[in-house]
Amino acid sequence: MDNTDPSHQPIGVFDSGIGGLSILQALRDELPHEHFVYLADSGHAPYGERGDTFVTQRTRTITQHLRDQHHIKALVVACNTATTAAIHHTRTEHPDLPLVGVEPAIKPAASHTQTGRVGVIGTRGTVTSAKFNTLLATVQPHADFVVQPCDGLATAIERAVGQTAADPDEVLALCRKYTEAMGPFGTGPGQMDTLVLGCTHYVFATPQLRSLLGDSVRFIDTGAPVARQTRRLLAAVGRLNLSGQGSVTLLSTGQRQALVQAAQRWLDLPAMAQQRDAVAI
């Protein structure tokens, strides 16, 4: 990799764990020539049940590490909770760094619903935040939103990857618990025909959610819009990499093998693209 050319420098992507791999997948589809450094802060997860001060400090530490050690040209905060708690501070501290965050896709959901009722699932840290509720207030005139915090679901999804001690039915049980608490899903009057996956981890629970809610309910996540925004920001500053084969470096502050197994399972990464490093930050 030629780091002397700004366009060849990597894009940093981070999440509290494996959930941001769903964003990385969309980024690789949109930007096949780019190099990515993905950091899973699994040693300090889950973020969704932590306070804003903790999440902001972790975001600050990780951003500085990726800049100092990997010379990233842009940063994607692939975590709804970290975006909510810390993206404003990160933009202030790194005004020269193109920065993309994620937020629950409730605006597209309001446009797509036919019944006028939309379900939103997310971590408690995301759906109880002032930032989320300000966003929700802007679209509530256009649809009725049923918002459900899903304590433990992101952690269960993490455990389900390469962990023999995990309960294989845990993710399904939690999905059932929370969707049943929300009310009826479907295309009939008064039913929710759209479900916003308000945590990047939840994309990996799509099979369980689909088995519970059926094929008529539309799921909306943020991967593709985030990837398109990343492309726009890089193009605006002349840092798009338009040639060569892209690569992925995987970093974790916790169990790196779980991250590697998740990447192999969901991203189908070629072995040559995986650098399996652990970091202590």
Shape: globular
**How big a fraction of the residues is strand?**
15-25%
Give a count of the beta strands, DSSP E runs of length 2 or more.
10
CATH fold call of the largest domain: Rossmann fold
Structural class: alpha/beta
How many discrete domains? 2
Mean pLDDT: 90
* Tally of alpha and pi helices: 11
How does the major sheet shape up?
Answer: 6 strands, parallel
Radius of gyration: 18 Å
- Which architecture of the largest domain would the CATH scheme give at its second level? 3-Layer(aba) Sandwich
The end-to-end span amounts to 24 Å
Q: CATH class of the largest domain, please?
A: Alpha Beta
Give the neighbour order of strands across the main sheet. Answer: 4-3-1-2-9-10
Commentary on this structure:
This protein has 281 residues and is of the alpha/beta class. The strands form two sheets. Strands 4-3-1-2-9-10 form a six-stranded parallel sheet, with helices on both faces. The protein has a four-stranded parallel sheet with strand order 6-5-7-8, sandwiched between helices. Strand 7, helix 9 and strand 8 form a beta-alpha-beta unit. Helix 2 crosses helix 3 and helix 8 crosses helix 9. The mean pLDDT is 90.
